[in-house]
Write a structure and sequence with these properties.
CATH class of the largest domain in chain A: Mainly Beta
CATH superfamily of the domain at 14-288 in chain B: Cytochrome Bc1 Complex, Chain C
Membrane topology (chain A): Single-pass membrane protein
Number of strands of chain B: 2
Distance between the termini of chain A: 71 Å
CATH architecture of the domain at 14-288 in chain B: Up-down Bundle
Shape of chain A: elongated
Distance between the termini of chain B: 4 Å
Strand content of chain B: under 5%
Chains: A alpha+beta (191), B mainly alpha (436), C mainly alpha (276)
Structural class of chain A: alpha+beta
Shape of chain B: globular
Structural class of chain B: mainly alpha
CATH architecture of the largest domain in chain A: 3-layer Sandwich
Function (chain A): Component of the ubiquinol-cytochrome c reductase complex (complex III or cytochrome b-c1 complex), which is a respiratory chain that generates an electrochemical potential coupled to ATP synthesis.
Family (chain A): Belongs to the Rieske iron-sulfur protein family.
Oligomer: heterotrimer
Radius of gyration of chain B: 24 Å
CATH class of the domain at 14-288 in chain B: Mainly Alpha
Largest sheet of chain B: 2 strands, antiparallel
CATH superfamily of the largest domain in chain A: Rieske [2Fe-2S] iron-sulphur domain
Protein name (chain A): Ubiquinol-cytochrome c reductase iron-sulfur subunit
Number of strands of chain A: 9
Largest sheet of chain A: 3 strands, antiparallel
CATH topology of the domain at 14-288 in chain B: Cytochrome Bc1 Complex, Chain C
Strand order of the largest sheet of chain B: 1-2
Number of helices of chain B: 16
Strand content of chain A: 15-25%
Subcellular location (chain A): Cell membrane
Radius of gyration of chain A: 31 Å
Helix content of chain A: 10-25%
Helix content of chain B: 55-70%
Number of helices of chain A: 4
Strand order of the largest sheet of chain A: 1-9-8
Order of helices and strands of chain A: HHEEEHHEEEEEE
Chain lengths: 191, 436, 276
């Protein structure tokens, strides 16, 4: 078995071998450590490049005109490339939502908490089922609204009530309410 | 496939022992680039460039994969998607400049690697296969680089694609149909862009495969060295690790410094301004030039201006491809028993002239086609072919080489880097072949 | 065998080259042209963004943007730049929104589905000035005003070129040009400018008088100053990440230098008792 030292041929100075061979190992350790840190520093921008780009992030707001939505009707808009449901609740639907005791809910929230003050008839939610992301039915004319009169997800049977709250099926939480504000009585700005 | 004194892999941990018994991959790595590969002790810095070429390919593959996630392969949006990478994608400018300049770095490193092989006779027996695979890698690199340059779909991308596919139209009779088939249309457009992207993504992995063969073939005889004298015994070699891994680490640092200099402070220096103008099939740039690494070959193409049996265009295309293909025959054109040009006093001068000649060709390739430049290009092109096809066979037979050292160790102990010869010449044939 | 065939091929190539060489020697030199002789290299332009430590001068970029907006934007688009990018020039969110609001961007009428326009928002990119190439040609005497987003990277020495071009117009062809090349003429509708490769371009001098724009920061708006500012602005539009690149570059080079030093030490240590 050859070793490094035995490879030194006769006639070559071997004086330095008497020194502790580990004496300057810190240089190698340091170089390898720096290479490791450098590789890590290079990986970061590579990973980060896969995050949403500036133009994607900038598409952060959507304006919706409410004036044409009659009570009982909904519209689908898009917000960050996802469906957005805007629904004008009828008084009966509001009453049905308010009448549901919170104790019956999987994700307890009142209708008031999910709408703006004084605008309880405007239910604005993402049209993304909280189970696995399908688009629930119920926003379009004549679509199946499910057993609770709100939305029904055809993928795995989650049913939402008139406040967009999960009532049955596998979805864990209510339909998400995005940040939005009324910029006038008939327009909202989402995002 | 190693010298008898090569160290055997001994797994240090039970886990590695377990792995090694079932799949001897750790052993393979150990024998390829670890302490199990004995390497001549006298390699100079020119022997760093093989590892650096591997590093450059790795950089290209990694940055390329992430860029492909953002790039749009459509003639109407390709240019915009590249600008979006530069402006909106997080660290996108870094990745794109790293990829664009990385290509240049890859070529710089590979050209030095090739020059090293030429000077020290690394292509000669028993390393012909290493050389042949190297030329294959070089051809694949050129194709990959060309197709990559088309992808940003700037003016130079478009007209580069037009001109280079135009080479094929020089072929008599079938040329034009071949060109149209290559492009999938009458001019470069969506079809060409898509197939170039597909192949540009594929070919680096083909290159990586051929590199594995290249290294495999290298490990059969072992590395050449500046004396060109074969390894005679254990005292002539050191284990690759830690000796050459440490040296390659230092070389990598220098490489990265140069790379960072281009990437961060002159990212467009090696590119062409016209490629920041979106491709316009109706307007040719005033002065079409390829990337710098193709300029010598472009000069050869342009130097053939006379019709003689074949027309000038076909001569140019034949000569341009021939200038690379002749490298395949180099091991058999050079008949000299001596590898290293350090011991070939006459041939050495011709090699130095060749190096200058290629630089001149590079200049002519990028210069305007004035009469003076064309003249220089024609003389330089003639030398290029005469060097390899006429001068080399004659000189290698007629030259009297200087006496070789008896062994690498003797050369090392006599003087720096084994450049000073001993009194007695030892014919190469006596060197022992390493055990397989 | 190969050592017989190869020299024949080599000599064959050389022979054809010699034939070409005689052709080159006997062919007449291309005549010197006015475009070749009187085309000038760009003047030197010092900008804060030049050099290894270069950073943008936001005040200057804002002035340059003002020149672009009030002068260039009449014909030249900036289609790769988004309004939101202007925040990098030091504009507040509200200022960016106000700038975007001044522009009309393409949209669809929500009632009829017909093409329409709407007020720009920060997320939009600068809209095109002309809907297509035909419209651009029709409005500009058959010349297309190029998009300016990448202009300083799309020309050699781009920023200096823009500055030189804007300040280099000459009302008539100089006497020395007409003396030497009597046949050289500037076609009607074109303007003489020695910094343009053909010496004559369709764009009329855009910066004609001092105080053509009124700078908010009180900088005197000379033609020279306006040209410099808009050149600086176009460096930013072409390479908005320049300052970040320089910073990252200095850090990287420093890091790699330390690594290289350590690697060199490691190399020398490992080889210290090994002559080579």
């Amino acid at each position: 078995m050859a070793t490094v030292d035995s490879a030194v041929p006769p006639g070559e100075s071997s004086g330095e071998q008497l020194e502790n061979p580990r004496r300057r190992d810190y240089l190698s350790i340091g170089a390898v450590a720096f290479a490791g840190v450098g590789a890590g520093a290079i990986v970061l921008p590579i990973i980060n490049s896969m995050s949403p780009a500036a133009d994607t992030l900038a598409l952060s707001s959507t304006e919706v005109d409410l004036s044409a939505i009659q009570p009982g009707q909904s519209v689908k808009a898009t917000f960050r490339k996802q469906p957005l449901f805007v629904r004008n609740l009828t008084p009966q639907e509001i009453a049905a939502a308010d009448a549901t005791p919170l104790s019956e809910l999987r994700d307890p929230q009142t209708l008031a908490e999910r709408t703006k003050e004084g605008k309880a008839n405007w239910l604005v939610t993402l049209g993304v089922c909280t189970h696995l992301g399908c688009v629930p039915l119920g926003a379009g004319e004549g679509e199946n609204k499910g057993a609770f009169g709100g939305y029904f997800c055809p993928c795995h049977g989650s049913a939402y009530d008139t406040a967009g709250r999960i009532r049955s099926g596998p979805a864990p939480t209510n339909l998400a309410v995005p940040d939005y504000e009324f910029t006038s009585d008939t327009t909202i700005l989402v995002g | 496939m190693s010298f008898p004194w090569a160290k055997q892999y001994e797994p240090k941990s039970p886990v590695m022992k377990w792995v090694d018994e079932r799949l001897p991959f750790p052993r393979l790595v150990y024998n390829a680039v670890g302490a199990g590969y004995p390497v001549p002790r006298n390699l100079n810095y020119f022997w760093n460039f093989g590892v650096l070429a591997g590093a450059a390919l790795a950089i290209q593959i990694v940055t390329g994969i992430v860029l492909a996630m953002q790039y749009s392969t459509d003639a109407t949006t390709a240019f915009f998607s590249v600008e979006r990478i530069m402006r909106d994608v997080p660290a996108g400018w870094f990745l794109r400049y790293a990829h664009a300049n990385g290509a240049s770095m890859f070529f710089i490193v590979v050209y030095i690697h090739i020059a090293r092989g030429l000077y020290y006779g690394s292509y000669k027996a028993p390393r012909e296969m290493v050389w042949l695979l190297g030329v294959v890698i070089f051809l694949l690199m050129m194709a990959t680089a060309f197709m990559g340059y088309v992808l940003p779909w700037g003016q130079m991308s478009f007209w580069g694609a037009q001109v280079i596919t135009g080479f094929f139209s020089a072929i008599p009779l079938v040329g034009e149909p071949i060109r149209i088939w290559l492009l999938g249309g009458y001019a470069p457009d969506a079809a060409a862009l898509n197939r170039f992207f597909s192949l540009h993504y594929l070919m680096p992995f083909v290159i990586a495969g051929v590199i594995i063969l290249h290294i495999w073939a290298l490990h059969i005889p072992g590395s050449n060295n500046p004396t060109g004298v074969e390894v005679k015994g254990e005292q002539d070699t050191v284990p690759f690790h830690p000796y050459y891994t440490a040296k390659d680490g230092f070389g990598l640092g220098i490489f990265l410094l140069v790379f960072a200099g281009f990437l961060f402070f002159a990212p467009n220096m090696l590119g062409h301004p016209d490629n920041y103008i979106e491709a316009n099939p109706l307007s040719t740039p005033a002065h079409i030039v390829p990337e710098w690494y193709f300029l010598p070959f472009y000069a050869i193409l342009k130097s053939f201006t006379a019709d003689f049996i074949l027309d000038a265009k076909l001569w140019g295309v034949l000569a341009m491809f021939g200038s690379i293909l002749l490298l395949f025959f180099l091991p058999w054109l050079d008949n000299s028993p001596v590898r290293s040009s350090n011991y070939r006093p006459t041939y050495r001068w011709f090699l130095i002239v060749l190096a200058l000649d290629v630089l001149v060709l590079g200049y002519v390739g990028g210069a305007e086609a004035t009469n003076g430049n064309v003249l220089i290009g024609q003389i330089a092109t003639a030398y290029y072919f005469l060097h390899f096809l006429v001068i080399l066979p004659i000189v290698s037979a007629a030259e009297r080489p200087r006496p070789l050292p008896n062994s690498i160790t003797e050369a090392v102990l006599k003087g720096k880097g084994g450049t000073s010869p001993s009194q007695t010449a030892i014919p190469e044939a006596h060197s022992p072949q390493p055990a397989e | 065998m190969i050592r017989i065939i190869a020299p024949l091929i080599g000599l064959g190539f050389a022979f054809v080259l010699v034939l070409g060489l005689f052709g080159t020697l006997t062919s007449e030199a291309q005549p010197e042209t006015a475009e070749h002789e009187f085309h000038e290299h760009p003047k030197k332009l010092d900008l804060a963004s030049n050099g290894v430590f270069g950073k943008f001068d936001n005040q200057q970029l804002q002035r340059g943007f003002q020149v672009y907006k009030e002068v260039c934007a009449a014909c030249h688009s900036l289609k790769y730049v988004a309004f939101r990018d202007l925040a990098a020039l030091g504009y507040s969110e509200a200022e960016v929104a106000a700038i975007a609001d001044d522009y009309q961007v393409p949209s669809v009428n929500p009632d009829t589905g017909e093409a329409a326009t709407r007020d720009g928002v920060a997320a939009d990119r600068f809209p095109l000035v002309y809907p297509n190439e035909v419209a651009a040609r029709a409005a500009n005497n058959n010349a297309i005003p190029p998009d300016l987003s990448l202009m300083t990277k799309a020309r050699h020495d781009g920023a200096a070129y823009v500055y030189s071009l804007l300040t280099g117009y000459q009302p008539t062809v100089p006497a020395e040009v007409t003396q030497k090349y009597p046949e050289f003429q500037v076609s009607p509708g074109l303007n003489y400018n020695p910094y343009f490769p053909t010496l004559a371009l369709a764009m009329a001098p855009p910066l004609v008088a001092d105080n053509q724009v009124t700078y908010a920061d009180g900088t005197p708006a000379t033609v020279d100053q306006m040209a410099k500012d808009v050149a600086a602005f176009l460096v930013w539009t072409a390479e908005p990440k320049l300052a970040a690149r320089h910073t990252a570059g200095l850090a990287s080079v420093l890091f790699i230098l330390i690594f290289t030093g350590l690697a060199w030490g490691s190399y020398k240590t490992i080889w210290r008792d090994k002559k080579h």
